[in-house]
């Protein structure tokens, strides 16, 4: 296989040299589309906004339809120019998730194609709110993606197979009081101190564990932002705002997760749900997932975060997280990734694609 490998390091450096912070993916989408236009494929690249669907191979009767999926955008960080130091590549998005995109490019540019029906999906705006993510509209608009049997989201996982994903809710809780002069606070109601019992209850919440397919997921609820809406330093504040981020286990529905937050707040504030992302079950027993385990992944773990595997799961499509980027490097300033992990990830991915059974 080594003789067929493209230069993964150069490809990753090329991807990282094109900045693509969320909302600014067009240049990278144009570049990827232009580069892949020179590759043989089963049909024309389909573009939706700044997202691309690439029908790479078709016509393999009895073989599964596999989608390799990766987001083009990165978080906004200051990393300096893309560069290589020793066996690491430093750049914004190097781990999350341009290393995964490099594997997708490598599969497309390898002269020997796996004998499966293979589609690549490059999409925009993953690093923001659920409703602004372009993968949702792509899955709605592209009818052929409904035939996918398994999707691999090449999110950073250190070449570990991470199954399922946690759901995520962001809720804005507004605790209301009444203004007064701070010299006569008894004439008002301080929204900040009024929130104290709720904050005590939130602080006492520990992780709630749930075992699914032998994997332990942990539901957690965290105050991630807090601010007052005070009118001045000598005015009793009449509003106190909390952002709650609730991460819930794969067997919990969005409705159940929302009900948990409402019960937790228990009327002590007004709840406004601002971002709702469903969870996804692990699908550990799926034959194509088991085949990926046998291809040599480093470990099998639960995904203790949200990813777009949930979008596929909501459409009845098995999906997993597997990629060569490093979890610990995601969203870091001075982000980097391991070049040996990059090479290893491609070997595992190709091994899996080449060993897929001839029937589902």
CATH fold assignment of the largest domain = Aminopeptidase
Radius of gyration: 23 Å
Q: Please mark out the parts with pLDDT under 50 across 5 or more consecutive residues, or reply none.
A: 1-5
The residue-averaged pLDDT reads 94
Order of helices and strands: HHEEEEEHEHEEEHHEEEHEHEHEEH
Q: Which class do the helix and strand fractions yield?
A: alpha+beta
Can you walk me through this structure?
It is a single chain. The chain is α+β, with helices and mostly antiparallel strands. It folds into 2 domains: 2-165 and 280-355, 3-Layer(aba) Sandwich (Aminopeptidase), CATH 3.40.630; 167-277, Alpha-Beta Plaits, CATH 3.30.70. It has helices at 8-16, 26-36, 94-109, 135-141, 191-194, 196-204, 254-265, 287-294, 309-313, 339-355, and strands at residues 46-48, 51-57, 65-71, 83-85, 88-90, 117-123, 150-153, 161-163, 167-176, 208-212, 215-228, 239-248, 270-277, 300-302, 318-321, 336-338. The protein has an 8-stranded mixed β-sheet, with helices on both faces. The protein has a 5-stranded antiparallel β-sheet with strand order 10-11-12-9-13. A 3-stranded antiparallel β-sheet has the order 4-5-16. α1 crosses α3 and α3 (94-109) packs across α10. The model is unreliable at 1-5 (pLDDT under 50).
Which features would summarize this protein structure in a list?
single chain, 360 residues, alpha+beta, Aminopeptidase, Alpha-Beta Plaits, 2 domains, 8-stranded mixed beta sheet, 5-stranded antiparallel beta sheet, 26% strand, disordered N terminus
Topology record:
Blueprint: H1 8-16, H2 26-36, E1 46-48, E2 51-57, E3 65-71, E4 83-85, E5 88-90, H3 94-109, E6 117-123, H4 135-141, E7 150-153, E8 161-163, E9 167-176, H5 191-194, H6 196-204, E10 208-212, E11 215-228, E12 239-248, H7 254-265, E13 270-277, H8 287-294, E14 300-302, H9 309-313, E15 318-321, E16 336-338, H10 339-355
Parallel strand pairs: 3-6, 3-7, 7-15, 8-14
Antiparallel strand pairs: 1-2, 2-6, 4-5, 5-16, 8-15, 9-12, 9-13, 10-11, 11-12
Helix pairs in contact: 1-3, 3-10
């Amino acid at each position: 296989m080594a003789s067929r490998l493209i230069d993964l390091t150069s490809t990753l450096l090329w991807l990282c040299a094109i900045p693509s912070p969320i909302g600014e993916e067009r240049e990278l989408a144009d570049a990827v589309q232009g580069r892949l236009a020179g590759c043989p494929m089963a049909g024309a690249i389909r573009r939706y906004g700044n997202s691309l669907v690439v029908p790479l191979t078709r016509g393999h009767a009895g073989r599964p339809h596999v989608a390799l999926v990766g987001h083009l955008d990165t978080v906004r960080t200051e990393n300096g120019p893309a560069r290589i130091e020793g066996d690491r590549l430093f750049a914004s998005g190097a781990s999350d998730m341009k290393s995964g995109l490099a594997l997708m490019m490598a599969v497309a540019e390898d002269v020997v194609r796996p004998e499966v029906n293979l589609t690549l999906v490059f999409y925009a705006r993953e690093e923001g709110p659920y409703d602004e993510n372009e993968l949702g509209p792509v899955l709605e608009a592209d009818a052929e993606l409904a035939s996918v049997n398994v999707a691999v989201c090449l999110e950073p996982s250190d070449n570990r197979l991470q199954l399922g994903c946690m759901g995520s809710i962001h809720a804005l809780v507004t605790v209301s009081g009444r203004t007064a002069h701070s010299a006569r606070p008894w004439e008002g109601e301080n929204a900040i101190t009024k929130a104290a019992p709720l904050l005590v209850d939130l602080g006492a919440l520990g992780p709630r564990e749930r075992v699914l397919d032998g994997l332990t997921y942990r539901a957690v609820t965290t105050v991630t932002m807090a601010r007052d809406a005070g009118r001045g330093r000598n005015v009793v504040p009449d509003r106190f705002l909390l952002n709650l981020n609730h991460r819930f286990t794969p067997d919990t529905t969005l409705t159940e997760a929302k009900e948990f937050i409402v019960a937790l707040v228990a009327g002590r504030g007004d709840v406004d749900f601002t971002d709702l992302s469903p969870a996804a079950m692990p699908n550990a027993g799926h034959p194509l997932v088991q085949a990926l385990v046998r291809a040599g992944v480093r470990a099998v773990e639960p995904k203790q975060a949200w990813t777009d595997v949930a979008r596929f799961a909501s459409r009845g499509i098995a999906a997993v997280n597997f990629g060569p980027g490093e979890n610990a490097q995601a969203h870091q300033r001075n982000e980097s990734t391991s070049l040996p992990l990059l090479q290893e990830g491609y070997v595992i991915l190709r091994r899996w694609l080449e060993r897929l059974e001839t029937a589902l």
